[in-house]
Amino acid sequence: MHVLNIHRRIIAQPIEKVAPLLDTLASKEDRIMPTAQWPPIRLDQGLQPGSKGGHGPIRYTVSEYLPGALVKFLFSRPRGFRGHHWFEITDLKNGQTEIKHTIDMQVVGIDILTWSFAIRWLHDALIEDGFDKIENIYLTENKKTKWTIGVRFLRWILK
Q1: What is the pLDDT of residues 47-88, one digit of tens each?
Q2: What is the pLDDT of residues 83-103, one digit of tens each?
Q3: 9 contacts 99 by C-beta, under 8 angstroms
Q4: What span, in angstroms and rounded, lies between the C-alpha atoms of 29 and 115?
Q5: How far is CA 90 from CA 72, 86, 142, in A?
Q6: Domain containing 87 — which CATH number?
Q7: How far apart are CA 90 and CA 72, in angstroms?
Q8: What is the pTM of this model?
Q9: Which terminus of the chain faces fewer neighbouring Cβ atoms within 10 Å, N or C?
Q10: Which residues sit opposite 77 in a β-bridge?
């Protein structure tokens, strides 16, 4: 099964303010991952190609890193996930910046069910929470994307 899962958010700030946030990914000062609600990204060598790690049960290797612009990961677990996921930052020129997260992978075997009935929904909530975290750096009133009942149920089961 082919999966193309894209999340994007426009941040009302110039790229000079938003791009450095990408470089905090997987650090103690991570400004992207919503670590108050979700497992942090841990990488054995930080943000550099070849660094291995992941978050929760998902494992991957950094395959490409362009500071302030792109970090791309190659999945290694679950075994049925064959492809990449990445964050990218794009200047929209009008004082706005887009942050985008993409998964492009083939899912095979039992992991078709794992993706379809659990990871997809949890992943979508995690990314939206992360985008809220970024946007809230610049807002006076915090934005909070509401979790679906399915996400709340899956999180309850996994506790």
Answers
A1: 999 999 999 999 999 999 999 999 999 999 999 999 999 999
A2: 999 999 999 989 999 999 999
A3: yes
A4: 29
A5: 15, 13, 23
A6: 3.30.530.20
A7: 15
A8: 0.95
A9: C
A10: 59
Give whole-number Cα distances, 106 to 81, 93, 115, 127, 157, in Å: 6, 34, 11, 20, 26
Tally the domains of the chain: 1
The C-alpha atoms of residue 43 and residue 65 are separated, in whole angstroms, by 13
Residue with tokens 């054995």: 44
The sign of the CA dihedral 101, 8, 143, 125 is negative
Neighbours of 154 (CB within 10 A): 17
Question: DSSP per residue over 60-80, as a string?
Answer: EEEEEEETTTEEEEEEEESTT
State residue 42 phi and psi, 5-degree precision.
Answer: -125, 130
Domain hosting 26: range is 2-158
